[in-house]
Amino acid sequence: MYAGCFLGWAGNLFLWRALGSDPARLLPVLAAFVPAVQSVLFPASATLTARWGPAVTEALTVLPVAAVSAACVATYLDSINVAALIPPLSVPRAVADAAPGLTSWAVFRAFETASAAYLPALIGKTFLLTRVGLELALAGAYAVLAPSRLLLLAVPALMHAALLNTHVMHPAATAALDASLAADGFSLLARQESVTGYVSVLENTSAGYRVLRSDHSLLGGNWVRFETPTGIAEPIYAVFIMLEAVRLVRTVEPIDDAGASALVMWVFVYSVHFCCCIYTIPSSLLTNRQRPRDRNHANGAHHTRHQDDRR
Questions:
Q1: How far is CA 193 from the centre of its chain?
Q2: Contact between 28 and 139 (Cβ < 8 Å)
Q3: Could you report the per-residue pLDDT of 228-275, keeping only the tens digit for each?
Q4: 177/39 Cα distance (integer angstroms)
Q5: At 137, phi and psi to the nearest 5?
Q6: Distance in angstroms (rounded) separating the CA atoms of residues 235 and 241
Q7: Contact in structure between 264 and 276 (CB atoms under 8 Å)
Q8: Domain ranges for the chain
Q9: Are 30 and 64 in contact (CB under 8 A)?
Q10: How far apart, in whole angstroms, are the C-alpha atoms of residue 4 and residue 15?
């Protein structure tokens, strides 16, 4: 974003001369094609990897829109004679010349700060508050500000968003996405835009497990095909079963709950820690209620480990 703003502001005259007309007429077309370009690039994530994927995606989507927008703002502000609007002796000429750029940057930062404060609480509530919805809304705003015949070039992008883009939150796109996942043995149970990204719940119909994803991150999952004595589904991560194995440790003198203490060290943070709590604590609590003797053994083992760590 910042690189695009800098390039557009510095090269506004070059862009105007290269195009031979007002670059603002390109803004609705560029913004309308952002969802389509993203839809084409997302399947190449495995090839681009986490290192180059975001850079390539933003270079082909955010950078052109930001550069042309900044160039248009710079051209319009350059046409304003700020020195004539300010009394001659009030401010130096250098400050008057820099006033348009400083003012536009201050306005940009103010809107960026305000959107970061208020927008996360609203993400995902309506279609316009999803990522694709906001991108299309930006294209519509540019179309109102700079109408021209070039808007006809944006029709294919709008048709792609309405019919082929599976990231658009409407029933037809969801059904198409579920059909494509069925070929790989998965079923889409639910999905939602959120402040943490694109959250989805998938179920592997062949292996019998259900997972929670946020964008490309796998947060956690449960086995849903296999029944357990407690009735609580087991997590798909074997490390959680290993953590519960401490309940099987036997101590010479069992320790009551009132005198037991433990040091629990988590290696996962944020959302992963939240999913650990969801997928492990209920089964542990229920198992401990049904097996009080093992619970004492676990408390004793935790207490012994805590004392060893303190030494």
A1: 8
A2: yes
A3: 777 778 888 877 667 666 666 677 887 776 776 666 665 544 444 444
A4: 12
A5: -65, -40
A6: 8
A7: no
A8: 2-163, 170-226, 227-311
A9: yes
A10: 13
Model pTM? 0.71
Contacts of 191 (CB under 8 A, 6+ apart): 169, 174, 198, 199, 200, 201
Q: What is the mean pLDDT of residues 303-311?
A: 40
DSSP 119-156: STTTTTSSGGGSHHHHHHHHHHHHHHHS--GGGGGGHH
Picking from 45, 70, 65, the residue whose alpha carbon sits closest to that of residue 55 is 45
User: For position 264, what pLDDT does the model report?
Assistant: 60
Quick check: helix, strand or coil at residue 62? helix
Q: Which two tokens stand for residue 194?
A: 């959120």
Cβ neighbors of 234 (< 8 A, separation 6 or more) are: 222, 223, 226, 228, 241, 283
- What are the strands of the beta sheet with 186-194, ordered from one edge? 186-194, 197-204, 209-214, 217-223
